[in-house]
Amino acid sequence: MIRINTIPVPKARPRMNTLTGRTYTPSKTKNFEEYIAFEYKKQGGKYFDDKPIKLKLGFGFKVPKSYTKKDKQKALEGQIIPSKCDIDNLVKCVQDGLNTVAYKDDRYIYAIEATKKFDNEDYIEIEIV
């Protein structure tokens, strides 16, 4: 399992250049995908070529400072979940970041298991089986 200590960033919608008529990925998303790839390689992540794989992802979000002690405890116990962003956009951003780095193409992923929760720090956990 690989753990990247960073604030998870969801995949943003493609933007349109009105002058050229071409679509492009916003720089924040593109930079984050490159960072995921860099960290995966740096931490010794395996390359799975064209084998079918199962992707397990965990997204941790730091509990906001504005929460009361009671709400913070509830959040850490899983009674309050982060509503910051959609889990499918978080997954897609990591998937695209791992493309050609962890696997040949994301079409080889046959199953995805993903969770998001509050924790004491921001992180992304990646496990490929």
Topology overview:
Blueprint: E1 2-4, E2 15-16, E3 23-24, H1 27-42, E4 53-62, H2 69-76, H3 87-98, E5 109-119, E6 123-128
Parallel strand pairs: 4-5
Antiparallel strand pairs: 1-6, 2-3, 4-6
Helix pairs in contact: 1-3
Strand content: 25-35%
Largest sheet: 4 strands, mixed
Structural class: alpha+beta
Note the gap between the termini. 10 Å
CATH superfamily caption: Holliday junction resolvase RusA
Number of domains: 1
CATH level 1 class label: Alpha Beta
Compute the average pLDDT.
Answer: 94
Level-2 CATH architecture: 2-Layer Sandwich
Q: Uncertain runs with pLDDT below 50, 5 residues or more?
A: none
Number of β-strand runs: 6
CATH topology assignment: 60s Ribosomal Protein L30, Chain: A
This entry's quaternary arrangement is single chain
Q: Radius of gyration in whole Å, from Cα?
A: 16 Å
State the helical fraction: 25-40%
Strand arrangement in the largest pleated sheet: 1-6-4-5
Secondary structure tally, helices? 3
Descriptive notes:
The protein is an alpha+beta fold. It has a single domain (2-128), classed as Holliday junction resolvase RusA (60s Ribosomal Protein L30, Chain: A, 2-Layer Sandwich), CATH 3.30.1330. The chain contains three helices and six strands. The strands form two sheets. Strands 1-6-4-5 form a four-stranded mixed beta sheet, with helices on one face. The chain has a two-stranded antiparallel ribbon with strand order 2-3. The longest helix has 16 residues, at 27-42.
Name the features.
3 helices, magnesium ion binding, Endonuclease_RusA-like, 60s Ribosomal Protein L30, Chain: A, RusA-like_sf, two-stranded antiparallel sheet, 129 residues, four-stranded mixed beta sheet, Endodeoxyribonuclease RusA family protein, 28% helix, alpha+beta
